[in-house]
Amino acid sequence: MSNFIPEIIYAIVFIVGNLTVYFWRRKTDDPDIFFFCCIWSLASLFVYLAAIEIPKGSFFVVIPLLFLGLFLQSYFRSKARLLNGFLFNLFIIVFGGYLLYNIFTTTSIIVGGLLAVVLVAFLLIVFFGIAALLIFLYWNAIVVMKKESHSLANLLTLLLAIFLTVYLVYDHFIAQQLPLWLSGFLSCLPLIMGYFFLVFFNFLTISLLYQFNHPRYDQDYVMVLGAGLLNGEKVTPLLARRIDAAIHFYQAQQKAKGKRAKLLMSGGQGPDEKISEAQAMKNYALSQGIPESDILLENQSTTTLENMRFSKKIMEEHSPNGYKAIFSSNNYHIFRAGIFANQAGLAADGIGAKTAFYYLPNAFLREFVAIVMMNKRRHLLVVGGIVGLTTAATLIRLLVN
Known about the structure:
Layout: H1 5-26, H2 33-53, H3 62-77, H4 82-106, H5 109-147, H6 156-174, H7 180-186, H8 188-210, E1 221-225, E2 229-230, E3 234-235, H9 237-257, E4 262-266, H10 277-287, E5 295-298, H11 304-318, E6 325-330, H12 334-343, E7 348-353, H13 360-374, H14 376-400
Parallel strand pairs: 1-4, 1-6, 4-5, 6-7
Antiparallel strand pairs: 2-3
Helix pairs in contact: 1-2, 3-4, 4-5, 4-8, 5-6, 7-14, 8-14, 11-12
Pfam families: DUF218 (PF02698)
Domain DUF218: 220-368
Keywords: Membrane, Transmembrane, Transmembrane helix
């Protein structure tokens, strides 16, 4: 029994700590219970790992902590950067390597349990990953086509599913039948796919982490980023959710601190719209009981980058001595919007409005495509390098044979 004393103490500290965090955060204006429980769980785990390793004379627990510190330093310096996704995933890989070392040197049942969960998840992905992914993508595509318009932007999950299906058929039934020179050249395809998978994984990681952003209740402005209108004059359900998220923050800040922020509606008038998006958003906010004196309009922008630039100009005119601001958009969009805020020189983070689950896969794919296009030169160089290397390798094989 004495051999399990560290594990018993850790289990007690873990459970009691999380219960304490739960009841503590419930009493606050902005509970965010899940985030703070994650912080406590990670901190208590590292304390436990250090407690069982250091007495044995090693200090390798410092290594994953350094990588975690590197991620946190980059993240809090600027949250909307793809680099942060890479650094977090790098931390996870290093931490996994450390856990493997730890299990062999300490035989901890806690570490063994963590690795068992990871192993089971890995095996499930290996055995069912591709098939499950294809089934999910086709199902999601059908749902989106039933509930949304058939625009190209809403067909991304279907296009991805078709591409993966064609590639699997090629890889299993056609690749072996091709001449050496052609199969060698086409060997660049899995490498290119692997590269974009890593880029997407980093993007998805930081996009999900960005959802935990919870601005303080001391904001002067809450920007709402515009979107298309119904019949050229009414906000869509998607845009209404953005406004609702801003109104919720506006009301929560007023209740918590007694400070009233200005809602800055940002969006110009499209060629098929009767009024500007900003005006339609104002009309909706007024219908929700927001005083007109607390609403500002930016009605010239046509892109998210212009949303940020033109809104920044308005806020600087109203608050020449400085201000604090955040922006509201749909949860899948706030990371890319944060990138545009950085490009505009605007120190503002985003709050995300909830989006229907069925729409999220397609929405995140659309955001990923947009992110790739923002850095298309870099990706073209990498793809070109892969094609060049595989072509050179194929030529060498042909000459040798």
